Automatic annotation (TrEMBL):
Highest taxon of the lineage: Eukaryota
Assigned GO CC terms: cytoplasm; spliceosomal complex
Chain ranges of the Splicing factor cactin central domain: 98-291
Family indicated by similarity: Belongs to the CACTIN family.
Record GO biological process: mRNA cis splicing, via spliceosome
InterPro entries in the record: Cactin_C, Cactin_central
Name of the featured protein: Splicing factor Cactin
Sequence ranges of Basic and acidic residues compositional bias: 55-86
Annotated segments matching region Disordered: 54-86
Domain Splicing factor Cactin C-terminal per the UniProt entry, residue ranges: 457-580
Length: 580
């Protein structure tokens, strides 16, 4: 009994010391946790077989200690596995983060490349269409200097750094954004664009100083910028202009060396101002270097083009002379080769003519029947009415509307564009504007008579309405409702599916600025007004169209192009979806 009590006490001590468990408090709620489990049935069988051997105190204690060590080892292995699992999870998260960052970086690179490619394509398109911005011409001159050929090899007359002289502060800041874009696009000429950015930044600083009310003399000589005394600007410009990059670099080293020595006879303030402006003239030298390279090739192209044009004129003249030489002269064989009869003296003719008669004599009005006389104004009105009737017969109301007014204005170029577009005819499902027929959706579109608008350029150019030839695309909408209520023998009413607007601006003064369009409210919610605006000498023109969302995808027919004096705006409207 004493042995059992001592073993029980040792068990309690081991449980409490090694495991922290007691019979009164343990996570299992077992009040007999420290008591030894005895397999009585097993012991009875062993006793019956004569194999039962009771264990001693030392054996029981040793066995308990062995179990406790095993428990500690299991806990240790479990903690190690938790640490390993945490490390593996951290490594997995780091790997996922690296992969995500790499994919995100690639996506950013692709997005940046996409935007830059689009910017480059827009620049090339503006150059091809003759709508170049100043920096587009600068980029074009770089391409020419690098050996690229264009249909027109013209470049800026002055070096590009002189673009900033007449710009406002807002315009200079916009140009700075464009230059930054070119720095990312054109890696082959990165030094050039960095120089342009430096020059533009100097111009912005100078214009900011002017805006703040400081002296404008600093910008009077090619935009030297702020920080230079008014009296020495001319001297600095004369000293630095015309120098090469190497000469300017040597001058900067020499000036800094002289300033460092602190010579008493030296005008330190003046030469510090010179040193501060040398980087600007280094940038200008870089820009002028590329401009001169492009100018040499541009001048060579111009000379070659002039020679070709002159040769073409001579060849055309020779061909025409040969053509006229083959024609009969109409002169008798005995003619002396003169091209007209000999002029008679005026004195001989005066005897046959009334006194002082060098033109027909005016007859009195009473000599003529008043019914045979024509009023010039009335004759012009009748002529216009006849023309309008003919145009309506061949081209719909759009033709008549686009041809009104403009007496005394040469509309031959408008007429050529109009007839060329009208000659294309109509494809399946298209009708002329306002010619869909009675009972159709004709009330949803048409030309709108705009209120008289005063233009700033009226004193210089006479306003006139542009001509146009528009088409309406119509068709049947076979949605669920129409499939239920109609068939091909009794089709549903046609609806407007799209428009094709052709507005002619052949005599636009500023051809580099394309016309624009925008939508405005109409008199009903089912319609809206589409207004087209351009520069002088054209007035605005507007049309009422159906108020439906446009499909702006090129895949579905959207087109907005201004080329050779014609603004083409083609679009289809999105379909209605019928739902019960």
């Amino acid at each position: 009994m004493a042995q059992q009590v001592s073993v029980k006490k040792v068990r309690k001590e081991i449980f409490e010391k090694e495991l922290g468990y007691k019979d009164e408090s343990n996570p299992f709620g077992d009040q007999k946790l420290t008591e030894k489990f005895t397999w009585k049935k097993k012991n009875e069988y062993l006793q019956a077989a004569g194999l039962y051997r009771p264990s001693s105190k030392d054996q029981d204690v040793s066995k308990m200690e062995s179990k406790v060590r095993e428990i500690h080892q299991v806990k240790k292995r479990r903690d190690e596995r938790e640490v390993e699992r945490s490390l593996l999870e951290a490594q997995r998260q780091d790997h996922d983060k690296e992969m995500h960052d790499e994919e995100y970086g690639e996506w950013l690179t692709k997005e940046e490349k996409f935007h830059l490619d689009n910017a480059k394509a827009r620049t090339q398109l503006r150059i091809e269409q003759g709508r170049e911005r100043p920096l587009d011409l600068v980029a074009k001159s770089l391409g020419i200097a690098g050996g690229e050929e264009f249909e027109e090899m013209t470049i800026l007359d002055k070096p590009p750094h002189q673009l900033f002289v007449n710009l406002t502060l807002d315009e200079a800041e916009e140009v700075m954004d464009e230059i930054s874009t070119f720095c990312r696009i054109d890696k082959d000429h990165l030094d050039f664009w960095k120089a342009m950015r430096f020059i533009c930044n100097d111009a912005i600083i100078a214009k900011q100083s002017e805006k703040a009310g400081r002296s404008k003399a600093g910008s009077a000589i090619s935009g030297l910028g702020a920080g230079v005394a008014e009296g020495v600007v001319g001297d600095i410009h004369e000293m630095l202009s015309g120098q090469t990059k190497r000469q300017l670099g040597d001058m900067l080293v020499e000036i800094k060396g002289s300033i460092g020595k602190g010579s008493k006879d030296m005008d330190t303030q003046f030469f510090e101002a010179v040193a501060s402006k040398i980087p600007l003239y280094v940038a200008r030298a870089e820009v002028e270097h590329w401009h001169l390279r492009a100018k040499v090739k541009s001048d060579s192209w111009l000379k070659k083009k002039e020679a070709e044009d002159e040769a073409a004129i001579v060849e055309s003249a020779a061909a025409k002379a040969k053509e006229w030489a083959d024609l009969p002269s109409g002169m008798p064989d005995d003619a002396d080769g003169g091209f007209s009869p000999d002029l008679e003296p005026l004195d001989d003719l005066e005897e046959e003519l009334p006194t002082g008669a060098c033109s027909p004599v005016l007859e009195p009005l009473s000599k003529y029947n008043l019914e045979d006389l024509l009023d010039p104004d009335e004759d012009l009105r009748v002529l216009k009415q006849v023309r309008q009737t003919i145009l309506e017969a061949f081209g719909g109301s759009a033709a008549s509307a686009s041809g009104s007014g403009d007496a005394g204005v040469d509309r031959s170029s408008d007429e050529a564009l109009f007839r060329a577009e009208m000659a294309k005819g109509m494809v399946s499902g298209e009708v002329a504007f306002n010619a869909m027929g009675k009972g159709s959706a004709d009330e949803f579109h048409g030309e709108i008579t705009l209120d008289r608008k005063h233009y700033e350029w009226e004193d210089k150019y006479k306003p006139r309405k542009p001509r146009f030839f528009n088409r309406v695309k119509t068709g049947f909408e076979w949605n669920k409702y129409n499939q239920t209520h109609y068939d091909h023998d009794t089709p549903p009413p046609k609806i407007v599916q799209g428009y094709k607007f052709n507005i002619f601006y052949p005599d636009l003064i500023d051809k580099a600025k394309a016309p624009v369009y925008h939508l405005e409210k109409s008199d009903t919610g089912e319609t809206c007004m589409l207004r087209f605006s351009a520069g002088p000498p054209y007035e605005d023109v507007a049309f009422k169209i159906i108020n439906r969302e446009w499909n702006l995808s090129h895949k579905w027919g959207f087109r907005c192009v201004f080329d050779r004096g014609v603004l083409q705006l083609y679009f289809n409207v999105k379909r209605w979806r019928y739902r019960r």
